[in-house]
Amino acid sequence: MTILLLLVPISLVLLGLAIWAFVWAVRRGQFDDLDTPPLDILREDTDGPRPLSAQDGGTANGNNTPDKGRLDECGRDKGHTDAR
């Protein structure tokens, strides 16, 4: 029963911190617009497809030389070939 003398004040302090964090978030505008951010990812790009350039993984001079130092989607060097 004496443990309640410790647990009740600790729980009241934690409750006060939670209320303070909620009030702080409301004042900072964290809950102002909850609908638009999830919908932003569904919008299509309006500028159309980008042309393939040297920075996007193509070759700058137009031939089929491997891109040394460039990484693919798995993090491997694009100029590297697996010997499996």
Automatic annotation (TrEMBL):
Annotated region described as Disordered, given as residue ranges? 32-84
Q: Where is this chain compositionally biased, Polar residues type?
A: 56-66
List, as start-end ranges, the regions of compositional bias called Basic and acidic residues.
Answer: 67-84
> Which InterPro entries does this entry report, sorted A to Z?
Cyt_oxidase_maturation_cbb3 (IPR004714)
Which NCBIfam families does the UniProt entry name for this protein?
A: ccoS
The protein's matches in PANTHER family, at most eight in alphabetical order, are given as: FIXS PROTEIN
The name this protein goes by in its record: Cbb3-type cytochrome oxidase maturation protein
